[in-house]
Amino acid sequence: MSADTFAPSLPAAAELSADAAVVGAGPAGLAAALELARGGLDVLLLDEQAEPGGQYYRRPGPEVLDAVGDHRPEGGRLVARVRAAGVRVLSGHTVWGVDDDRRTLLAASPGGAALRVRARWVVAATGAYERSVPFPGWQLPGVVTPGLAQHMSAEGVRLGRRAVVAGSGPFLLPVACALLERGVRVAAVAEAGRPYTPGPAALGALRFPARLAELASYAARLARHGVRLHQDTVVARAHGADRVEAATLVRFSDPGEVVARHDVDLLCVGYGFRPQADLAQLLGCAVDRDPATGDTVPRLTPAGRASVPHVYVVGEAAGAAGAPTALARGRAAALDILAASGRAPDRGERRRLAVRMASLARFTRLTAALYPAPAELVPALARRLPGSALVCRCECVTAGAVRGAAAAAGGSDVPAVKGGTRAGMGLCQARECGPALEALRADGPGTGAVPARVPLRPLPLAAVLGPAPGEDA
Amino acid sequence: MTPRTAAAQVEVTVDGRPVLVRPGTSVAAALLEQGRWDFRVDPVSGRDRGPYCGMGVCLECEVTVDGRAHVRSCLERVRAGMRIDTAAGEDA
């Protein structure tokens, strides 16, 4: 580090301004940015990945697409339209905080230089991340989220020779198929619930045959490859020394019953997706706890406007509901902003979009009803964790230590449990262990959820202090 | 199914050793394709750690790229001539 960094008066960070700043270039952010730019606003789109697309339309380099194929070409087309509409796209830029005015976004460029972004409207399209629930051995190399398995398969990587895919939710099926396509043998898919023998609650989903047909086609492909689909089954333990070597599967409803033990070099485990609402929280937006998922979700109007009127939250950050919903939410927010900016969009268009969103919401609710509610599933899994299992993988804090802190005075307060154990205070900021921490806290008063903290991502010091003199930000 | 080799491979160095990787992939993908899962050594337990989330959240895949520490390898693209150093490699 140069001595200049400690100069008494630091140079100001580079400033950018726009009518609208959209954070996150996944389906929702892209849809919002496109609509806003078409409506005549000057739009800045910030995204931390190398290429726009988010997780759903994640774009490897063109060389990979040429060689491996593009499994979601519509993503590339949407990105092209966004660029053609004049949106200023800043890839590789991490928005890590909000200034004291609760309005100016603080970002870091790919080189780590500081950037301040001021906009009349802020659209938080920060997406979702996978819900992890710890189990013994989950820190072993070779234990990954289903999302990692899908991304690396899309990049053409064969991640292992033999895999188990486990957890809960519809996403497990396409991930298992993606692994098969790369030549990985999938020993089993383990689903905690019983969604594939649906009860009366699920029958409403039959009104959406096209979407269910997609799920059925994945299930059929797995069956053709002889992949066992275990229901009411969860991973009890990953075995191995320096790399995962085997996985033990047990009944979710009766953990004493071993369903199978598979020798694997890849174990993919995830329990659906959690909205990433931390930027909205830093912007001062009111949030609620979703009773079905236990997740923190921003309080929004149907068009996505938050309690802070210049902030909109769209896509998975507003509640995980899938890509079609994310696209619709992005458009709806943009149309609302355009109306508020006096650029009245076609009222009929807004009405049609509202009808479509209501239909998508119905499908999301019915799909969710097929799978166990995370607010019940996660605590059930956390309660049976052996004391020696790591809960916080960053700080190596065991379930026993977390339970000890939860039993002490103030143990019903998640920040107190974190402070007493360092659980959830590592680099990932409790994004991986948060659901388990929340489940293991004692009943009683206090903060039940992991609060958002600045910086949202660990940063080089330069990004916080501003550029060094003479440096081009 | 192995991907067709369309583009020429590019050379990078991993822990000081030259290796050929496919262009356009993430650094994490390039390392995994080399059979590497030991991206990091956990400072508390001293045990190896590998990539976990693949989307920039867990920070388990951090490596040093061209001397820049704490780069999330799942979000960074490989470039010809790139120098990739893992914490596991430093200890070896």
UniProtKB/TrEMBL annotation, chain A:
Residues 19-327 form the FAD/NAD(P)-binding domain. InterPro entries: BFD-like_2Fe2S-bd_dom (IPR007419), BFD-like_2Fe2S-bd_dom_sf (IPR041854), FAD/NAD-bd_sf (IPR036188), FAD/NAD-binding_dom (IPR023753), Metab_Enz_Cyan_OpOx_G3PDH (IPR051691), Opine_Oxase_asu/HCN_bsu (IPR017224). Residues 390-440 form the BFD-like [2Fe-2S]-binding domain. Keywords: Oxidoreductase. The keyword Mitochondrion does not apply. It holds the Pfam family Fer2_BFD. One of its GO terms (molecular function) is oxidoreductase activity. This is NADPH-dependent 2,4-dienoyl-CoA reductase, sulfur reductase. It comes from Nocardiopsis flavescens.
Automatic annotation (TrEMBL), chain B:
GO terms for molecular function: iron-sulfur cluster binding; oxidoreductase activity. This is 2Fe-2S iron-sulfur cluster binding domain-containing protein. The keyword ATP-binding does not apply. It comes from Nocardiopsis flavescens. InterPro entries: 2Fe-2S-bd_N, 2Fe-2S_ferredoxin-like_sf. The keyword Oxidoreductase applies. Keywords: Oxidoreductase.
